């Protein structure tokens, strides 16, 4: 049983509140990602689950058991760190089997479990090497192997891929995802990388200033962000945000001194004159003929291409806008064209509270 439950958890260092009344439920076997900007409290929250930090208030339960006052070694968890934390004088086999040897498990059991996990992670040929003889990706797999052989109730990952290059991050990310499918152990994973969060997490917890901003599946957060903060934090390229006012008869949205007039999508009940923010994902903009109804006239500032994806950075009457596409663009700096957002995909937020306004 590896469900994790946090109820009203707070943590202060002196007068500084780092975690503020956090309540999260992580189901048994779930892969949960904690994400947020630097200083949001995600690593501190993970250390609280691990028992490496004491709570100021609240309760931590693992597998239905109250572990709030228990030491880390009594919580049946295994942690994979950003820095690998391998013993340099020990071989791969010795590093992976260290926890089992501390528990004085039978030698044949230790060898069997170590061999099984080494085969699972493709480490069989490296068992007699020292950490200094391994690449970064191999060291991270050893760190994961050391956690797996313990067969814990919960795996905790503290930004395990941040020391790897882009290609290795993608590779090891896939390995962690596959590993979770195979063994199904509850996993809590901290990252600041939204691509990792979106591609790995079954549940994502977005943190901001020590508080939970939103909890949901990756697509929930992308399609239905609760706030401007979540909308801006999830998604790459970043969402376009345009300040606007609800027009006469509450049928239109006016921005940039009414130079841009967009139809108000059906289902919104907004009063005329209300100040709002319009969220437009870069992929929800299409090029249309100049003067087309509901269009935004833009001038190209720059074009960024990765080969498979193109992002066009534009200047509009409402400020910078990003347009993304899978198609390669022939646009050049200074070119002018008109864009029209998909009105059904618009996200509308109250300007004062920055909360999303829900369609009826």
UniProtKB/TrEMBL annotation:
Residues 4-234 form the ABC transporter domain. PROSITE patterns: ABC_TRANSPORTER_1, ABC_TRANSPORTER_2. GO terms for molecular function: ABC-type transporter activity; ATP binding; ATP hydrolysis activity. Gene3D superfamilies: 2.40.50.100, Nucleic acid-binding proteins, P-loop containing nucleotide triphosphate hydrolases. CDD domains: ABC_MalK_N (cd03301). GO terms for biological process: carbohydrate transport. One of its GO terms (cellular component) is ATP-binding cassette (ABC) transporter complex, substrate-binding subunit-containing. Pfam families: ABC_tran, OB_MalK. It is found in: Cell inner membrane. It comes from the Bacteria. It is a peripheral membrane protein. Keywords: ATP-binding, Cell inner membrane, Cell membrane, Membrane, Nucleotide-binding, Transport. InterPro entries: AAA+_ATPase, ABC_transporter-like_ATP-bd, ABC_transporter-like_CS, ABC_transpr_MalK-like, ABC_transpr_MalK/UgpC-like, Mo/tungstate-bd_C_term_dom, NA-bd_OB-fold, OB_MalK-like. Belongs to the ABC transporter superfamily. This is Sugar ABC transporter ATP-binding protein. It comes from Xaviernesmea oryzae.
């Amino acid at each position: 049983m590896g469900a994790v439950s946090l109820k009203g958890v707070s943590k202060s260092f002196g007068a500084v509140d780092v975690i503020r009344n956090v309540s999260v439920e992580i189901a048994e076997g779930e892969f949960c990602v904690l994400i947020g900007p630097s200083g949001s409290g995600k690593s501190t929250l993970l250390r609280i689950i691990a028992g490496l930090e004491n709570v100021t208030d609240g309760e931590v339960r693992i597998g239905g058991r109250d572990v709030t006052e228990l030491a880390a070694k009594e919580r049946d968890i295994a942690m994979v760190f950003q820095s690998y934390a391998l013993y340099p004088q020990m071989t791969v086999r010795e590093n992976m089997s260290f926890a089992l040897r501390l528990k004085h498990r039978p030698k044949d059991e230790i060898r069997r479990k170590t061999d099984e996990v080494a085969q699972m992670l493709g480490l069989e040929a490296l068992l007699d090497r020292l950490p200094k003889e391994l690449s970064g990706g191999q060291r991270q797999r050893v760190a994961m192997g050391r956690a797996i052989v313990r067969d814990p109730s919960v795996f905790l990952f503290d930004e395990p891929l941040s020391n790897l290059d882009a290609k290795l991050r993608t590779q090891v990310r896939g390995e962690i995802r596959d590993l979770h499918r195979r063994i199904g152990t509850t996993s809590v994973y901290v990252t600041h990388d939204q691509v990792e969060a979106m591609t790995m997490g079954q549940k994502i917890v977005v943190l901001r200033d020590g508080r939970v901003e939103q909890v949901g599946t990756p697509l929930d957060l992308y399609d239905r962000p609760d706030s401007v903060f979540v909308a801006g934090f999830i998604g790459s390229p970043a969402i376009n945000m345009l300040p606007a006012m609800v027009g006469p008869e509450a049928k239109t949205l006016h921005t940039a001194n009414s130079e841009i007039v967009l139809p108000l999508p059906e289902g919104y009940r907004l009063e005329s004159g209300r100040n709002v923010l319009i969220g437009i994902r870069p992929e929800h903009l299409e090029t249309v003929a100049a003067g087309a109804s509901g269009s935004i006239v833009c001038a190209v500032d720059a074009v960024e291409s990765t080969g498979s994806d193109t992002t066009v950075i534009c200047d509009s009457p409402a400020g910078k806008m990003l347009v993304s596409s899978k198609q390669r663009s022939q646009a050049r700096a200074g070119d002018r064209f008109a864009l029209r957002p998909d009105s059904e995909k618009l996200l509308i937020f109250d300007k004062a509270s920055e909360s999303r306004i829900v369609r009826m």
